[in-house]
TrEMBL record:
This is Uncharacterized protein. It comes from Micromonospora saelicesensis. The keyword Membrane applies. It comes from the Bacteria. The chain crosses the membrane at residues 41-60. The keyword Membrane applies.
Length: 154
């Protein structure tokens, strides 16, 4: 069931990224809005689209790891994503967990510890964070520039 939730979230993220991309490109191509606030707004939308798309990409990887972990049958123990820690460590795995911020797949050990697998590529979390910060910064600057450019009393 977790797999389906992750898959739906990834599809929703892809749709959101597409909408933000179209709006960002529309802001870039708009003839009347060549001001600084217009460019900042476009940059905020496009960086936001990139952040959402990268997070959705990470959700797809996480969903695939969950699908492999929940797959029963022959060869299902130890949990497949947890095998990368080596046979000694994998034999102590008694469950798994997922983290959404940052995106990661964790293997729980019977002794009480956890370790993180490489199911989610290492570039996903840093790129998502940087693009999210760029998007937020450009959005705040665009709003501040727009308010400053308005004449008093409007």
């Amino acid at each position: 069931m977790l797999f389906l939730g992750l898959l739906l979230a990834a599809l929703g993220g892809a749709a959101t990224a597409a909408i933000l991309t179209v709006r960002g490109l529309g802001a870039v191509l708009r003839k009347g809005e060549r001001s600084r606030s217009g460019w900042l707004r476009a940059a905020a939308l496009l960086a936001g689209a990139g952040a959402v798309a990268m997070y959705a990409w990470g959700l797809l990887h996480l969903g695939y790891a969950v699908m492999r972990a929940e797959d029963g049958g022959a060869g299902s123990f130890p949990i497949e994503p947890c095998r990368e820690g080596g046979s000694q460590l994998a034999s102590q795995v008694d469950g798994y967990g997922v983290s959404y911020v940052p995106l990661r797949f964790e293997c729980h050990l019977s002794g009480g510890g956890t370790y993180v697998t490489s199911s989610v590529p290492g570039y996903v979390n840093p790129v998502t964070s940087v693009l999210g910060l760029i998007s937020a910064s450009c959005g705040v600057l665009a709003a501040a520039t727009t308010q400053r450019a308005r004449p008093p009393g409007v």
